[in-house]
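Possible regression after last week's pipeline update?

I re-ran a chain I had predicted before the update to compare outputs. Posting the input and the new output here so someone can diff against the archived version. Not blocking, just want to make sure nothing changed silently.
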Amino acid sequence: MKRLVFVLLLLASPAFARDETTIFAAASLSGAFKEMGKKYRFNFAGSQQLAAQLEQGAPADVFASADEQWMSYAREHGLIAGEPRVFARNRLVVITPKSNPGRVDRIADLARPGVKVLIGVENVPIGRYARQVLTKHSSDFARRVLGNVVSQEENVKAIVTKIALGEADAGFVYVSDATPAVRRMPIPDEVNVIAAYPIAVVKNAPHAEAAQAFVNFLLSREGQAILVKHGFLPAENSRP
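New output (post-update):
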């Protein structure tokens, strides 16, 4: 209870600057992050897009990536301060339209001729993770599924929207993004991957103290509970 009171007081403090703190976060974090702070200035997009914006000088206080590769890129280019922390993890799932017109009931069905598949572009975390899933199944399977890809998207939200509208038969997204508007098909654990989400304060952040407070809250018991509520795995002990 004392910890919760402290966090609530911290969030209410003028020093926290909630209406000024700018958080660059992967699109898949939008639901959870908006619940944590409705007054923050959020910029949700693909992790690669956010890293590019930071490199071009866009003002931000926090960078939360959907993979460690783009966080490493930001660190190597002097865009963040301090050591990044993994604050959440995620698994992948295949989604289909509710009516399942492509009759996709198992992952093997994705390689069937005529099935229309959506995937993230290769440099987007969801796209890279999806390709890892396919390759873990087999290289031939990956080749056949990629041959069924009808569109490559810049972020996971675009995939969910297009599948919900019936523009393709199946797509790869994170478990946390599989909304009730789509049908969910689990990926077997032996070929699934765990996505790690690192976060860091941006170098020369205009509101560095408030930014660090936000990071600390994400790593707290309360912050982790909100992430789990939205379908994420906790930062630790998250193997399926």
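Follow-up from reviewer: compared with the archived run. Confidence is low (pLDDT under 50) at residues 2-17. Marking as no regression found.
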